[in-house]
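Posting this for the archive.
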Amino acid sequence: MICVCLPTYNERENLERMVAALGAVLGDNGIVLVIDDNSPDGTGGIADRLAEERDWVQVLHRPRKEGLGPAYLAGFQRALELSADLILEMDCDFSHDPADVPRLVSAADDADLVIGSRYVPGGGTRNWGLIRRLISRGGSLYAQILLGIPVRDLTGGFKCYRRAVLETIDLAAIHSKGYAFQIETTYRTIRAGFGVQEVPIVFVDRQVGGSKMSKAIVLEAVWKVPLLRISTLRGRA
């Protein structure tokens, strides 16, 4: 069974369309788990209505906004409790195309973690300014060099995990929230001996709603990556 973890905060304009699009590609073998951080715009209420109308939609309400990392960790735990074999994470704003979900799922036949990658041949970004491109690509290169791993899109948030990965890596030890969360989970996956594959995707900047990008998210990755490397060198990763 496939579980798509869909974190939301003020996504009322996008949620219903995204759930419908995911339902079309998942068929009878999938669950959409909406993880709402008490959105003040009423996204949580929309999620509850969708869950009442569709038995393959579930909702996990969280009391407050804590960042993407904690939301995904809560979703991963619920997905494991639901006995999901494959657990996906993706954005709710259509930056990640729901039509790409089957490609990630298919690639998981030969990999333990599949990353929808902007930085392999065939991948890319659309509607991004120069600064955003530099931050994203530079962040991935920075982490790739410091951590010494071959993954090219380390900051990407469109992923498909086999359940064994999330059962093995120490989720309770992960406290990152933004870009650093994506870097850390991939790094821990590789350190645990699992195979990672990147498949090309085109990331399209959101058309509706506000971006969750912040200076704090970028700065977290800057200091967290060296700490991960130091922990490995000390044998504590």
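Helices lie at 15-26, 43-53, 68-81, 101-107, 130-147, 163-168, 179-191, 215-233. The chain has eight helices and nine strands.
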